[in-house]
């Protein structure tokens, strides 16, 4: 997980992450505040309860697989029977 945070941070600083100007995604991005834990990991948080960051969390989840090198095919039937999100 630490590698994911490092890669994501580097991609953001280098300007390699771009979006099409979607206003909902832009709103979620503007609501994100980085939270540092005791191990030095940065997690997305929101400053106020009424804010939403769901789209940013979805982007992080989508990037986990290619960044971590996990590959292979997914058995969709098994996934739907017992979904697990890491």
Automatic annotation (TrEMBL):
InterPro entries: TerL_nuclease (IPR046462), Terminase_largesu-like (IPR005021). Keywords: Endonuclease, Hydrolase, Nuclease. The keyword Transmembrane helix does not apply. The keyword Nuclease applies. Pfam families: TerL_nuclease. It comes from the Bacteria. Residues 10-69 form the Terminase large subunit-like endonuclease domain. GO terms for molecular function: endonuclease activity. This is Terminase TerL endonuclease subunit. The lineage of its organism: Bacteria, Pseudomonadati, Pseudomonadota, Alphaproteobacteria, Acetobacterales.
